[in-house]
């Protein structure tokens, strides 16, 4: 198994909001990146957004023109899981659905080299259960990035029941190589950050649903009243309402407490395809 400094090739699966940012970070850290998505249009959007994000960093003097070009060159878009066979580390960032993720882990287990570490960027799903779908549960780990990955300073690491100390140490130092601070969570639903954040977002939906105030007043209240960079409804749109709903459902079923029951308004928005900023419409609309 590769140590953090030996991780040379990184596979990223899911080229959405998170996967594109994770691919960017790994490329900027000098890794060869293989970026895979089931939807080819997601790959072209990801390449454009990575380029724009790197240019923003270059404009602030945080990246040279040469480093910008090298990072872009290190990212190769691929179309099948087989293309990831030589990766030292694979980071999965596909849809927040346990069955779909397990199916992918079964495939990854078959095609990646036996030394490869398999990581999930899941927001809430049990790492132990994802790991148990493979024959290498000791090499499966949660590597939870925050949105937007190039800017947010944290990675939350979650060990499954069988993750070894060696795998944990490699992923922790690799996270530091990406320039992030690390926290460690036990493998409980929603881990640390979403266990605390999602009930707040859900409560903001209840406040809107029950007519406590307008969306603007709820968000302004939390921005100016508690110094959050975004109000909770704006943040939900930014994360994706589908992701928020999936996480709340995992918290509700996994912790068995009605306080995590998703607000009907959030459910209705997701049913209506109002998934937030990425779709141009959520709580707010985006031009
Ligand atoms: N790439 C590169 N740079 C970026 C960027 C990106 N993708 N996004 C923002 N930036 C930079 C901007 O260039 C800007 O830099 P300067 O200040 O040096 O000019 C800076 O970040 C701030 O950006 P903006 O001025 O465009 O906008 P902003 O001040 O509103 O900040 C934000 C944007 C950083 C996203 C900020 O609003 C914020 O921190 N919001 C909260 C984000 C948050 O809570 N994320 C976690 C969500 S929970 C999660 O991720 C876990 C989960 O499982 C759901
Ligand atoms: P997204 O909807 O922006 O992107 C998901 C991508 O995965 C899409 O491009 C989709 O085509 C692709 N995909 C779906 N199933 C696939 C499969 N079987 N094989 C290959 N590609 C597939 O979602 P996102 O916001 O980037 O979230 C991805 C993961 O990251 C989820 O597990 C989510 O919970 C987690 N996460 C999200 C955030 C956030 O703020 N959005 C933060 C941290 C973690």
Automatic annotation (TrEMBL):
<feature type="binding site">
    <location>
        <position position="123"/>
    </location>
    <ligand>
        <name>CoA</name>
    </ligand>
</feature>
<feature type="binding site">
    <location>
        <begin position="14"/>
        <end position="19"/>
    </location>
    <ligand>
        <name>NAD(+)</name>
    </ligand>
</feature>
<feature type="binding site">
    <location>
        <position position="53"/>
    </location>
    <ligand>
        <name>CoA</name>
    </ligand>
</feature>
<feature type="binding site">
    <location>
        <position position="101"/>
    </location>
    <ligand>
        <name>NAD(+)</name>
    </ligand>
</feature>
<dbReference type="InterPro" id="IPR036291">
    <property type="entry name" value="NAD(P)-bd_dom_sf"/>
</dbReference>
<feature type="binding site">
    <location>
        <position position="96"/>
    </location>
    <ligand>
        <name>NAD(+)</name>
    </ligand>
</feature>
<dbReference type="GO" id="GO:0070403">
    <property type="term" value="F:NAD+ binding"/>
</dbReference>
<dbReference type="InterPro" id="IPR008927">
    <property type="entry name" value="6-PGluconate_DH-like_C_sf"/>
</dbReference>
<feature type="binding site">
    <location>
        <position position="123"/>
    </location>
    <ligand>
        <name>NAD(+)</name>
    </ligand>
</feature>
<feature type="site" description="Important for catalytic activity">
    <location>
        <position position="144"/>
    </location>
</feature>
<feature type="binding site">
    <location>
        <position position="147"/>
    </location>
    <ligand>
        <name>NAD(+)</name>
    </ligand>
</feature>
<feature type="binding site">
    <location>
        <position position="60"/>
    </location>
    <ligand>
        <name>CoA</name>
    </ligand>
</feature>
<dbReference type="Pfam" id="PF00725">
    <property type="entry name" value="3HCDH"/>
</dbReference>
<dbReference type="GO" id="GO:0006631">
    <property type="term" value="P:fatty acid metabolic process"/>
</dbReference>
<keyword id="KW-0560">Oxidoreductase</keyword>
<dbReference type="InterPro" id="IPR006176">
    <property type="entry name" value="3-OHacyl-CoA_DH_NAD-bd"/>
</dbReference>
<comment type="similarity">
    <text>Belongs to the 3-hydroxyacyl-CoA dehydrogenase family.</text>
</comment>
<dbReference type="InterPro" id="IPR022694">
    <property type="entry name" value="3-OHacyl-CoA_DH"/>
</dbReference>
<keyword id="KW-0520">NAD</keyword>
<feature type="domain" description="3-hydroxyacyl-CoA dehydrogenase C-terminal">
    <location>
        <begin position="190"/>
        <end position="286"/>
    </location>
</feature>
<dbReference type="GO" id="GO:0016616">
    <property type="term" value="F:oxidoreductase activity, acting on the CH-OH group of donors, NAD or NADP as acceptor"/>
</dbReference>
<feature type="binding site">
    <location>
        <position position="278"/>
    </location>
    <ligand>
        <name>NAD(+)</name>
    </ligand>
</feature>
<dbReference type="Pfam" id="PF02737">
    <property type="entry name" value="3HCDH_N"/>
</dbReference>
<feature type="domain" description="3-hydroxyacyl-CoA dehydrogenase NAD binding">
    <location>
        <begin position="10"/>
        <end position="187"/>
    </location>
</feature>
<dbReference type="GO" id="GO:0004300">
    <property type="term" value="F:enoyl-CoA hydratase activity"/>
</dbReference>
<dbReference type="InterPro" id="IPR006180">
    <property type="entry name" value="3-OHacyl-CoA_DH_CS"/>
</dbReference>
<comment type="pathway">
    <text>Lipid metabolism; fatty acid beta-oxidation.</text>
</comment>
<comment type="similarity">
    <text>In the central section; belongs to the 3-hydroxyacyl-CoA dehydrogenase family.</text>
</comment>
<dbReference type="InterPro" id="IPR013328">
    <property type="entry name" value="6PGD_dom2"/>
</dbReference>
<feature type="binding site">
    <location>
        <position position="37"/>
    </location>
    <ligand>
        <name>NAD(+)</name>
    </ligand>
</feature>
<dbReference type="InterPro" id="IPR006108">
    <property type="entry name" value="3HC_DH_C"/>
</dbReference>
<protein>
    <recommendedName>
        <fullName>3-hydroxybutyryl-CoA dehydrogenase</fullName>
    </recommendedName>
</protein>
């Amino acid at each position: 198994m590769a140590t953090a400094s030996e991780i040379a090739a990184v596979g990223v699966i899911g080229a959405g909001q998170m996967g594109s940012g994770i691919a960017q970070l790994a490329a900027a850290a000098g890794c060869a990146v293989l970026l895979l998505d089931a939807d080819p249009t997601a790959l072209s959007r990801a390449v454009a957004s990575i380029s724009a994000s790197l240019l923003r960093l270059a404009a602030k003097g945080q990246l040279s023109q040469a480093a910008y070009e090298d990072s872009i060159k290190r990212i190769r878009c691929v179309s099948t899981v087989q293309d990831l066979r030589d990766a030292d580390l694979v980071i999965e960032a596909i849809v927040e659905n346990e069955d779909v993720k397990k199916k992918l882990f079964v495939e990854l287990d078959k095609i990646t080299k036996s030394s490869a570490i398999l990581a999930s960027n899941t927001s809430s799903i049990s790492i132990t259960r994802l790991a148990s779908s493979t024959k290498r549960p000791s090499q499966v780990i949660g590597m939870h990035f925050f949105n937007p990955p190039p800017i947010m300073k944290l990675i939350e690491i979650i060990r499954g029941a069988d993750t070894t100390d060696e795998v944990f140490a490699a992923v922790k130092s690799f996270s530091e190589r990406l320039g992030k601070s690390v926290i460690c969570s036990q493998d409980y639903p929603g881990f640390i950050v979403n266990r605390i954040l999602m009930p707040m977002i859900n409560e903001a939906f209840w406040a809107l649903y029950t007519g406590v105030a307008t969306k603007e007043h709820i968000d302004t209240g939390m921005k100016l009243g508690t110094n959050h960079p975004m109000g909770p409804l704006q943040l939900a749109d930014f994360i994706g309402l589908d992701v928020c709903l999936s996480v709340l459902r995992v918290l509700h079923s996994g912790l068995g407490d009605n306080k995590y029951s998703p607000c009907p308004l959030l459910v209705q928005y997701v049913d209506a395809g109002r998934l937030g900023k990425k779709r141009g419409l959520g709580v707010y609309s985006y031009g």
